[in-house]
Amino acid sequence: MSQAKTDPRILRTRKFIMDAFIELSGKKEFKDITVKDITNEARINRATFYYHFQDIYDLLENVLSEVLAVNLNQENYENSELTEKTFLQTFKAITNFQSSLSNRCHRGYEDTIARIIRDQLEIIFLRILRKRYPEEDEHGLQVTAVMLSWGIYGASVEWKRKSQALTPEEFIKSAIPYIQLGVYRNIKNN
């Protein structure tokens, strides 16, 4: 089955389905989009849809995760540390992602979007922390990654809510030294 998933025809069909969903999400509320709408837009049958996705919620999560992964460009974080540049780059990617969604998506996505953002950020931060502190307690690193992901996500929501007069970089820049100081000091002292 894994070999079939890498077949270019399979990948192309999956992309057609995801693109159809994105197109429809710009026109309709999520709750009003049906599998039939998606299959008509993608020009596929229902069986093909269900071969790729369990249901419309699975499709939503996959689309949002893929779009966020492109925005974050996770490969950039493979050799990263928790530097000012990393925080700025991450915050900007998250705010860009949220801005692009607010232009295309209607209400009803907030909880799913929030969870996907936090999950993706947690993965990134945990990789960075594990690389920097390979001998540290795994539980402590995981909790730190969770706190960083929720903090960055929360700051992006706050920026979107009331501070768009500032660029994302201007908004987050003054907090970065405190985040770095707390992260590095706490891990080293444990």
The chain-level structural class is mainly alpha
Main β-sheet: number of strands, strand sense, barrel status?
Answer: none
Report strand %. under 5%
Shape: globular
Helix content: over 70%
How large, in whole angstroms, is the Cα Rg? 19 Å
How far apart, in Å, are the first and last alpha carbons? 45 Å
Compressed to H and E, one letter per element, the order equals HHHHHHHHHH
Q: What is the mean predicted local confidence, pLDDT?
A: 83
Please tally the β strands and state the result: 0
Word description of this protein:
The structure is a single chain. Helices cover 75% and strands 0% of the residues. With 190 residues, the protein is mostly helical. Helix 2 (8-25) packs across helix 3, helix 6 (84-104) crosses helix 8 (138-162) and helix 7 (110-132) packs across helix 8.
What's the short story on this structure?
The protein is mostly helical. The protein has helices at residues 2-5, 8-25, 35-42, 46-52, 56-72, 84-104, 110-132, 138-162, 168-173, 176-189.
List the main descriptive attributes of the protein structure presented here:
190 residues; mainly alpha; 75% helix
Describe how the helices and strands are arranged.
Elements: H1 2-5, H2 8-25, H3 35-42, H4 46-52, H5 56-72, H6 84-104, H7 110-132, H8 138-162, H9 168-173, H10 176-189
